[in-house]
Amino acid sequence: MDVTEDQLLATIHRVLSGAGPEVIVGPGDDAAVVRSGSGELVMTTDAMVEGVHFRTDLTTPRDLGYKAIAVNVSDVAAMGASPRFAVCALTLSSAIDAAWVVELAGGMRECCEEFALSLVGGNLSAGGEVSIVVTVTGEVVPGRAVRRNGARPGDRLVVTGSLGGSAAGLRVASQRSWSDDERDAIRRFMRPTPRVGEAGVLASHGVTSMIDVSDGLALDLSRLCRASGTGARIELARIPRHPAATPAEALAGGEDYELLATLPDLETFEDARSELRNAFGVSLGDIGAIIDEGLVAVDENGTERPLMTEGANAGWDHFR
Amino acid sequence: MDVTEDQLLATIHRVLSGAGPEVIVGPGDDAAVVRSGSGELVMTTDAMVEGVHFRTDLTTPRDLGYKAIAVNVSDVAAMGASPRFAVCALTLSSAIDAAWVVELAGGMRECCEEFALSLVGGNLSAGGEVSIVVTVTGEVVPGRAVRRNGARPGDRLVVTGSLGGSAAGLRVASQRSWSDDERDAIRRFMRPTPRVGEAGVLASHGVTSMIDVSDGLALDLSRLCRASGTGARIELARIPRHPAATPAEALAGGEDYELLATLPDLETFEDARSELRNAFGVSLGDIGAIIDEGLVAVDENGTERPLMTEGANAGWDHFR
Description:
2 copies of one chain form a homodimer. Chain A has about 325 residues and is α+β, with helices and mostly antiparallel strands. Helix content of chain A is about 35%, strand content about 25%. Chain A has 2 domains: about 15-140, CATH 3.30.1330.10; about 155-305, Alpha-Beta Complex (Phosphoribosyl-aminoimidazole Synthetase, Chain A, domain 2). Chain A has 9 helices and 13 strands. In chain A, the strands form 2 sheets. A 7-stranded mixed sheet of chain A has the order 8-10-7-11-9-12-13, sandwiched between helices. The first copy, chain A, is globular and about 55 Å long.
């Protein structure tokens, strides 16, 4: 492909820009929001493709099924919405047997039960490689969906939990033995935890924008800033890093499914942090601030440099 | 795969059978129906996989985009529902360029505009083969979704339009020249017409069950009968056949996306037929009746034989 993922998406969105007034949030956010009957419906879809997102010899089908649901639940949560229903289109290669599929379905059911949604339908196809496409719908209080585009200069930039664990887990998965931290990192890669309740708490504290960190902090922050028409200044030393992760993995490793959000002031941040710690035992880190323009990283010595979102140190672009 | 598609689906449904009271129609029908807010939401998903459902050298991306939406719209229509919103998960191989994707999106938009739904979101992934997974939601008057399981002995078995055209189109597509009928058949394969308005008319006339013919008349009829706990007796000479199709293609060729439905009596059939002809110029054929058990085909001489749903003459199973 001769363009980046974001460039291609922008082009597709232009071709599709014919949506009517019933579309509240169209393409380009974590999930779409549409008017449905008297309420608002949230919709998102995500693919897991063999050889790109997983290898059948490294991942159990049960973990894979869990993760296929979880990554979509994360997108619904990042809109401040509650997941309700899922459908799955499954493409199977000739290398797959029925027992593998039953385990995959079992993992999907586990995740659905944990986050109180129902898998209500699906489709089976044959193909040359395994692909699992899940679509999840959710519900949100009308007018209360949290978008990427509401960040304002002066807002605090916050992130839940820690970053880089999933990338570290992928890196160490093929080792023969692991430290406890590495085991935890592998678990984060294999079976990420979508931040559903946490997103609800952040929404109740008045976050101005929110996104889930699926493609790396640097790339997802750049998307939030572009949508909001702002810049951001992050302090590298304050990025909460998983103990098994390198600084680069914390900055640019994908698939952590933590929440990146903006809050109007430090007092709100302290309130939200307390509630997240008390209710879920999950930390909330203040990693910087929204500024007028530019993406700036500040290192331990106070030196500022541009935050790279493309290139070797940047987030996960599916076409690079 | 060591089992048929229907066997594998049945196994998956057992693993997943944990749905709550908010699920009105779960896995196993054309689409799921769930309670959503004060209404009912219809959801369906379908995949088109390179090498299985299409070849990029034989299909234009614009037709492919149109069809990817249309096959899902057909499933929503077969529930007696109105399509509203779509999301698409697109997996692209390295052989695909941006212009191809823009054409694909253009075809999706064409179909969405024709059937008044909005494509509101999506996802891009890289992969070894192209795959297009569309999920469509729809709305239905609460309690009025038409399922597969309502056929009763004595019901007339009816089908819209003609069958076998799509299979014939695929068969003749690689010829150097075509008759007018063959051109029409190719168009039916490349750009099928979902029967949305027609399904609404049939629903208003009190169809007791309905299914779209996506995998061939024989196989889809067997699914309707299994869901309803009945049999069926069809008269082979009365199956409306596309002029380019063989009898076998009309009986077992997939991807026609016509509607197969049951109506309580001949008078209702005549009324529905008149309205379909007047409103849409679409024919409705009476091809037989629902019976207590067994699937029976009657040939031109009145000889009865079992209708084969497995084997060389049967419908399209994705794992055969």
